[in-house]
Design goal:
By secondary structure, the protein is an alpha/beta fold. It has nine helices and ten strands.
Length: about 325
């Protein structure tokens, strides 16, 4: 059993077409954030939708925890899951090269063909000087970012970490999925979900909406079962103590719940109705579970799986504001 990690703040952004949560009016809300940042530095210009939702979610996670921005100092690091959200940018960039040769190589778009640019932009704009990590594990990259950040906080590598996933799925990506035999009936859209994680023993009083109790991953034939078992061991919680289950969008609910078949009928099981937001799906499910403190007074298990026989599981506990 390892120490829990406090969720001090949550930032959730899903633009129209993203398909999860309440749509965010970027045209209204983002300029206010950028204007505030520009008061202490040069004017801020964002280029890509994935950059817009990531910066806004990061800002809201810090703001909800009472952390002003630009933050400054080395107290806050970032672990960001980014994968398919970069694919459409790469496709557009290389399409320009194929059409116009070197003259078609946009210097503005080129940095965004590298996944760690998004985390770097968040760090620069919000003045986060802690360590920065970018995870590229496909659909579960947002989950893996949460696991890495939890470990960083637990082991005191970082006093606090922003962690989660971000994506921007364009038509090019959805068309490519269809051509490879993995059609997605969702619409193009963008989404991000980031948490500010701190040690549960750190100063801050009652600040926070809940705790992350455990996290684990599994691979191979028994990926889900192994992930769930290791997660419960990590948290020091018995399976009978779990009070709810969240299954991430896009997963095989039947397969995901197989490790919990003995009591799945006795606890609330929630599957988000929205289409998958890929790297952001698992963090979004964690956010929903954390915020369900009033309805489910106990640990909630979040389970996600990708198409490559890999699974992630997180155990969370909500804490209603005092």
């Amino acid at each position: 059993m390892k120490a829990p990690v406090r969720v001090a703040g949550i930032g959730v952004v899903c633009v129209p077409g993203g398909g999860a949560g309440e749509p965010v009016d970027l045209a209204r809300r983002l300029p206010a954030v950028l204007a505030a940042l520009a008061r202490t530095g040069p004017p801020v210009r964002l280029i890509q939708p994935i950059e817009e939702v990531a910066v806004l979610a990061a800002h809201e996670a810090l703001a909800s925890a009472g952390v002003s921005t630009p933050a400054g100092g080395e107290d806050v690091g970032i672990a960001l899951g980014v994968e398919e959200g970069i694919d459409g940018i790469k496709a557009e960039y290389y399409r320009g090269i194929l059409k116009d040769g070197l003259l078609g190589a946009s210097p503005i778009m080129f940095p965004f063909t590298t996944p760690n640019t998004v985390a770097a932009r968040i760090s620069i704009l919000l003045d986060l000087r802690g360590e920065s990590f970018t995870l590229c594990g496909g659909t579960l990259s947002g989950a893996q970012a949460i696991g890495l950040a939890m470990n960083a906080v637990r082991e005191a590598w970082s006093p606090a970490m922003l962690a989660g996933g971000v994506t921007s799925v364009g038509r090019e990506f959805l068309d490519a999925l269809a051509r490879t035999g993995r059609p997605d009936d969702g619409q193009a859209g963008s989404g991000a979900c980031l948490f500010l994680l701190e040690p549960s023993t750190s100063s801050g009083g009652s600040r926070g909406t809940g705790e992350l109790l455990g996290y684990a991953e599994g691979f191979g034939r028994e990926d889900v079962r192994d992930a769930v078992q290791a997660c419960l061991e990590d948290a020091g919680v018995r399976v009978e103590q779990v009070k709810g289950v969240w299954v991430t969008a896009g997963g095989d609910a039947r397969a995901l719940l197989e490790p919990l078949r003995r009591f799945a009928a006795k606890v609330p099981v929630r599957r988000p109705p929205a289409p998958s937001l890929y790297a952001a799906s698992f963090p979004l499910a964690v956010a929903e579970a954390v915020q369900a403190a009033d309805a489910i007074p106990g640990p909630v298990l979040v389970i996600g799986r990708d198409c490559l026989a890999g699974a992630s599981a997180a155990l969370v506990r909500g804490r209603a504001p005092r």
